[in-house]
Amino acid sequence: MEARLSQKEKELVAVGASVAAGCIPCTMYHLEEVRTAGAKTDEISHAVEAALCVKGSARAIMETTAYDALGSPKEEYPSCCVGPTDRMKELVSIAAAVAVSCPTNFQKHVAAGRSVGVRDEEIQLVVGIAKMIRSKAAEKVDEAARQVATPQSTAPQACCDSTVRPPESQAAAASCCGNSSDRPDERTACAPSKRACC
Question: CA-to-CA distance for 190 and 23, rounded, in angstroms?
Answer without folding.
Answer: 16
